[in-house]
Specification:
One of its GO terms (molecular function) is DNA-binding transcription factor activity. The protein has 153 residues and is mostly helical. It has one domain: Arc Repressor Mutant, subunit A. A hairpin with a 5-residue loop joins strand 1 and strand 2. The two termini are 30 Å apart.
Length: 153
């Protein structure tokens, strides 16, 4: 099963946008994220519908954040993307009349629901500002290591 990496991609784009002064075109964002501008436009369109970004047209146009980083949670972004399945694993449903399959699926469904609820609770507690602070700390450590001649991986 293919993983849905849109949330990761969106977070990447939004952090670039937060660091950039002014709008960023789909083409520039696509280069940052190593994807196609069409993919960027499709995903940013979902965020625009949720009121999280805005688009401006013209030569100097592009995408901009519409809200402060502190006001956007990972949960909101997950919801804006259509609440994609958070787990790639699942259960079989080939013999719905089989009592063994029913028992296995019931237990797995409960476990998946509990795990997803915990993950979404954590997503609700993390903001874009938290991610920006994490990036800033890593960037500062990288810069200080580079100045000291320390190789970093």
């Amino acid at each position: 099963m293919k993983r849905d990496s849109r949330l990761s991609m969106v977070l990447h784009a939004l952090l670039h946008m937060a660091e950039h002064k002014g709008p960023m075109s789909s083409e520039v964002l696509a280069r940052c994220m190593r994807t196609n501008p069409v993919v960027v436009r499709r995903v940013m369109g979902l965020l625009r519908e949720a009121g999280l970004v805005r688009a401006t047209r013209g030569a100097a146009g592009g995408w901009e954040l519409a809200v402060a980083l502190e006001r956007v949670t990972l949960r909101q972004l997950h919801e804006a993307l259509g609440e994609p399945t958070v787990f790639a694993i699942g259960h079989k449903n080939e013999a719905p009349g089989c009592l063994v399959e029913q028992a296995v699926n019931a237990v797995m469904d409960d476990a998946f629901a509990a795990a997803e609820a915990l993950l979404l609770e954590r997503f609700a507690a993390v903001t874009l500002a938290d991610l920006a602070a994490e990036f800033s700390a890593r960037f500062a450590a990288h810069r200080s290591g580079a100045k000291a001649g320390i190789a970093r991986g």
